[in-house]
Specification:
The complex is a heterodimer. In chain A, about 45% of the residues are buried. In chain A, α5 packs antiparallel against α14 (about 260-280) and α15 packs across α16. Among the domains of chain A are: about 105-200 and about 220-275, ABC transporter involved in vitamin B12 uptake, BtuC (Orthogonal Bundle); about 285-325 and about 335-363, no CATH class. Chain A has helices spanning about 1-10, 20, 25-45, 50-60, 65-100, 115-130, 135-140, 140-165, 170-195, 200-210, 220-235, 240-245, 250-255, 260-280, 285-300, 305-325, 335-355, 355-360. The longest helix of chain A has about 35 residues, at about 65-100. Chain A has 18 helices and no strands. By secondary structure, chain A is an all-alpha fold. Chain A starts with a helix and ends with a helix. In chain A, about 75% of the residues lie in helices and about 0% in strands. By secondary structure, chain B is of the alpha/beta class. Chain B has 11 helices and 17 strands. In chain B, the strands form 4 sheets. A 6-stranded mixed β-sheet of chain B has the order 6-7-8-3-9-10, sandwiched between helices. The chains are: A mainly alpha, B alpha/beta. Chains A and B meet through α12 and α13 of A and α2, α3 and α4 of B.
Chain lengths: ~375, ~350
């Protein structure tokens, strides 16, 4: 008798069907998309390589053309992986910042983090020119690290300023403040670059035009661990970030440590946005739009679903944008940020029009 | 009765480096299992400060708050959240979270790092939703709900936290009367049926008088007074706490009235009773005292389908077909010169 009661309880279906669970089937779909874009990225370019060739190169078996191996392993694979990692990292950072600042237009770029990283890198480049470029160029790993350090310090500095300012100003004012901080950083960069030599300025200009193509194998040992820590942190903070949706006061009443959550989340955002900006240059829009697309697709604000969703979507969109840039165009060389703007700007407009608070109806 | 929360010599207020600003001190009070207590008092008396101090979000300037005998300022936040839950005035904007997911956040202090809900957690959430009468709302997005529905969900969430004490600060502030009554009823059920002890601060004296088991009355600049609603009305504490120039407490109706505007009095009589009742209210509204044997008489007659009002003054008789007309005629009478 008792056992029948027990089974009837455990087999009882949940009374409520949640909208956020209805779309979980999208995960495998996104995964397939990710793989397809990955293969397209490796296969398409000035030299077309068939899927069998890609698979052959990746798994080390014989392929029809020996140059394929060089093209894929030396050029396309690092670029593609950088796009995948960069997109996932920027998407996750954007989601964390949007929840933390309670601001739908927050993101590494909108909050001025990217500009901070740019300034940091400009300072490092200048320092290299002043101290003697040979110092940094000769010790490849150190130069590698010093750019990352510069970018992350710049990020951190801007983030600290933004956190302080966000206590005193409204959502929209904060964004304008971030924008101005970005311009300020640009101005400072121009001034700083005056003190450097032409070759370094050229290096900086190349870097400043965001692209995943500038990432080489030697960068991955720094990039990957940092991004992995940042993503893992984001995943671990999914529960507190959900509580944060109710506002700080409610989150605190639920037993959450607001200070600790804020600290860890901001730390993760810096770990994600800093290294990616250091190696890929400023990549605009991705961090801002990916969380919105994830929310729209999965119809939820639950971070336990959104975190993996933004990683997948970020990876897909960044690769797709990079693919578009590297299509075998005849005349032009497209810029990554131009493509990002083409996708990103309409999404931002849609967010502004959809969001009552953003339209200014609510204070 | 089982004592759950105890305030001992509590002093609330704000401390800066330079000075201490005490808002209320010498607060001694208890909350018992299964009771609904309303904290009322005029604006600026320090209700919110007291609520924040009791819930552990603001440090007291002196004294202690005990929860089952333990000082709450020494309980780690997560442990405290398992015993005490909060509902606040603020309008929550939870993005695309459904009402169910918001209630589920009440399980926050009970779940592990990933926040995974067990079968039992789901049962508790469902129970809280049913208790709040929000079964219809559960699957909808919180952002689609009205203010009243949203507060219901926030109350359900506080209940799902399985606390011993629920503290609600002005949660009915933005709601209309039916919604306020609904929330009050819901809280009564939660207190009496589930044995929670609930402290609700409110501006709504009428609802507090009718719904609370006991009242904590906080007059401005004075000590906290505690008693059953009726006791506090009868011993004049109520009137003392709220009355100010131009407003007085009416013992009979249990509500506050604006002082009479006219020296003269009117008698209201007739049938049907509801019409007479509302005619009296109209008189109060315009500041005319209603008394028996007054020099001016209003007779209500159910003339056919709609009632008519006969206004009998010293030497004239006027028939009115609506209260609006009656009021206009009364104001026109010479006898009713403003004081």
């Amino acid at each position: 008798m008792e056992s029948t009661i027990a089974t009837s309880v455990t087999t009882a279906k949940p009374k409520y069907r949640l909208a956020s669970h209805a779309r979980l089937f999208l995960f495998p779909v996104l995964l397939i998309c990710l793989i397809v874009v990955f293969l397209l990225e490796l296969g398409i370019g000035s030299v077309s390589i068939p899927v069998s060739g890609i698979v052959g190169v990746l798994f080390g078996s014989e392929v029809a053309d020996v140059t394929w191996s060089t093209i894929i392993l030396e050029l396309r694979l690092p670029r593609t992986l950088a796009a995948m990692i960069g997109g996932a990292a920027l998407g996750a950072a954007g989601l964390q910042l949007q929840t933390l600042f309670k601001n739908p237009l927050a993101g590494p770029w909108a909050l001025g983090l990217t500009a901070g990283a740019q300034l940091g890198v400009a300072l490092v480049v200048t320092a290299a020119a002043v101290i003697g470029s040979s110092f940094l160029e000769n010790i490849e790993v150190l130069s590698n690290l010093s750019i990352v350090a510069g970018a992350m310090l710049g990020c951190l500095l801007v983030l600290l300023i933004m956190v302080t300012v966000s206590r005193y100003v409204s959502t929209i004012t904060l964004l304008i403040f971030g924008l101005m901080l970005g311009y300020l950083a640009q101005g400072l960069i121009s001034v700083v670059l005056h003190f450097t030599n032409q070759s370094q300025t050229k290096i900086f200009a190349g870097w400043n035009d965001g692209s995943f193509a500038g990432v080489y194998w030697e960068h991955f040992p720094v990039l990957v661990p940092m991004v992995v820590i940042g993503l893992a942190g984001g995943w671990l903070m999914a529960k507190p970030l959900n509580a944060f949706l109710l506002g700080e006061n409610y989150a605190r009443s639920l037993g959450m440590s607001v200070k600790r959550t804020r600290l860890i989340t901001l730390g993760c955002a810096v770990l994600l946005a800093g290294p990616v900006t250091a190696y890929c240059g400023p990549v605009l829009f991705l961090g801002l739009i990916v969380p919105h697309l994830a929310r729209g697709l999965f119809n939820t604000s639950d971070h336990k679903i959104l975190m993996p969703a933004v990683m997948l979507l970020g990876g897909i969109i960044a690769q797709a944008a990079d693919l578009f840039v590297h299509l075998p165009w005849e005349k032009h060389f497209l810029h990554l940020n131009a493509v990002n703007a083409l996708i990103g700007a309409p999404v931002v407009m849609w967010v502004i029009l959809k969001n009552r608070k953003m339209r200014g109806f609510e204070v | 009765m089982e004592k759950v929360l105890e305030l001992k010599d509590l002093a609330t207020g704000y401390a800066t480096r330079a000075e201490k600003k005490v808002v209320t001190d010498d607060i001694n009070a208890e909350l018992y299992k299964g009771e609904l207590v309303c904290l009322i008092g005029p604006n600026g008396a320090g209700k919110s400060t007291l609520m924040r101090t009791i819930s552990g979000t603001q440090k007291p300037l002196g004294g202690e708050v005990f929860l089952n005998g333990t000082n709450i300022y020494g309980i780690p936040p997560r442990q405290l959240a398992k015993k005490l839950s909060l509902v606040l005035t603020e309008r929550v904007n939870a993005g695309m979270l459904s009402a169910y997911e918001v209630v589920a956040l009440g399980r926050y202090p009970h779940t592990n790092w990933s926040g995974k809900l067990s079968q039992r957690d789901h049962e508790i959430i469902e129970e809280a939703i049913e208790m709040a009468g929000a079964t219809e709302l559960a699957q909808r997005s919180l952002s689609e709900l009205s203010d009243g529905e949203r507060q219901k969900i926030m109350v359900a969430r506080a209940f799902a936290q399985e606390p011993e004490v629920m503290i609600l600060d002005e949660v009915t502030a933005f709601l209309d009367l039916p919604r306020r009554v609904e929330i009050m009823k819901l809280l009564r059920n939660m207190a009496n049926d589930s044995g929670k002890c609930i402290l609700l601060s409110t501006h709504d004296m009428d609802l507090a008088l009718r719904g609370a088991d006991r009242i904590w009355l906080l007059p401005k600049g004075e000590k906290l007074q505690i008693g059953s609603p009726e006791d506090l009305v009868l011993d004049g504490s109520f009137e003392n706490a709220f009355s100010s120039e131009g407003v007085s407490f009416d013992l009979e109706s249990g509500s506050f009235k604006i002082h009479n505007h006219y020296q003269w009095t009117v008698s209201v009589a007739g049938a049907p009773a509801p019409v007479v009742q509302w005619t009296r209210r109209a008189m109060e509204r315009i500041g005319v005292r209603v008394e028996e044997n007054a020099p001016i008489k209003v007779m209500v007659e159910s003339g056919g389908e709609a009632p008519v009002w006969k206004l009998v003054a010293v030497n004239e008789e006027i028939t009115c077909t609506s209260i609006h007309e009656l009021v206009l005629k009364l104001k026109g009478l010479e006898a009713l010169e403003p004081v």
